[in-house]
Amino acid sequence: MARQVGIPNKQKAAVLLVTLGPDVSGKVLQHLQEDEVEQLTLEVARLDRVSPDVREEVVGEFRELCIAQEFISQGGIEYARQSLEKAFGSTKASEILNRVVQTLQVLPFDFMKKTDPSQLLSFIQDEHPQTIALVLAYLSSNQAAQVLSGLPHELRAEVARRIAIMDRTPPEVIREVERVLERRLSSVISQDLSQAGGVKSLVEVLNWVDRSTEKTILESLSENNPELAEEVKKLMFVFEDIVLLGDREIQQLLREVDNKELGLALKGVGETVQDKIFRNMSERAATMLKEEMEFTGPVRLRNVEEAQQRIVNIIRKLEEAGEIVIARGGGDEIVV
Length: 336
Description:
Elements: H1 9-20, H2 22-29, H3 34-46, H4 52-88, H5 90-104, H6 117-124, H7 129-138, H8 141-150, H9 153-165, H10 171-188, H11 199-206, H12 211-224, H13 226-235, H14 247-254, H15 259-266, H16 271-278, H17 283-296, H18 301-320
Helix pairs in contact: 1-3, 1-4, 2-11, 3-11, 3-12, 4-5, 6-8, 7-9, 11-13, 12-13, 15-17, 15-18
C-alpha cells in the first residue's frame, strides 16, 4: 500500500484509539498522564472523517513501532536493525528505525514531518520569511528542498539567506511558533475521508475509562469548552443518572448488583440517588443496606468510584442486551 499523506502524531493517536474501540482505548487511557488524557480525548472529539487507508496505515505504523521497540529492549538499536532487516528488508527496517528514533526524541515541528510538501507549501508560504526559514531548518533535507523550490522566486532567495545566517533560536520562541502553526495546520489539512471519531467516539471511550479519569476529562471540557462538554454529557450515562431510571428498571438493576457493591457505590452520592434506590427495595432490604453502609465506615474514594463504574457497566450491558433503553439528552423516560 502506498504511504498516505502524513498527519500529526496526536491525530494518529486519536485515530488509533478510535480504531481499537472503547473497551481497549479506555484501558490505554488509564496508563497515561492526566494532561495526555485530556489532549487525546480532545483530539478524538475533533476527528471528523478518517479514510480506511489512513486508519490502516496508522495501525500498521503502530505495529511496526511496537515490534522495533521490543527488539531494542532485547538488544539495542543494532540488534533491532538486524532483526528488522531479516523481517522487512533493509529499506523498510531503516524507515521503521527512523520513526522509532523520532518517537523517542521528538524534535521541533515534528507534526509537519509527515505532511505532504505541497500542502505544507500552501500552508506556510504566507508566513514571515524568518518563520519559514525556522521551520525548514528542522525538516528533512528532502522535504525542506521541495517546499523551498515551490516558494516564489524572491521569497525563496530570502528564506534561503535567513537559513544560512540563522544562529541559535531561543527555545521559548520555537515552542510558541510551533504551538501556533500546529493549531493552524490541524484546521486546514483536508483529505478524502470517511466517518470516524467525533463526540460519539469520545463518549464510547469515556464510557470505559475509570470514574476518576471520566470526571477529570468532563471537568476539563466544562472549563475549556462548555458546549462540547454539554454535548458529551447528553450522550453519556454516569452513576448519578440512576435517578433518571424508572422504578422497573431500578428493580431490574438491583437483581444484578451485589448489596455490598451497591452500598459502597452509594456512599459517594447524595440523598437523591440513595432515596431512588431505597424506594425500590423492600423496607427490610433497605434497612439492611443502610446498616451495611454505616458499618463499613469511611472508605477510599477510589474504591467508591470503582464500584460506581462497575454498576454503570451493568446498566450499559442491560442496554446493549435490549433489556432497557437509556433516554439521553432530556428525552423520554427509559422503557423496557
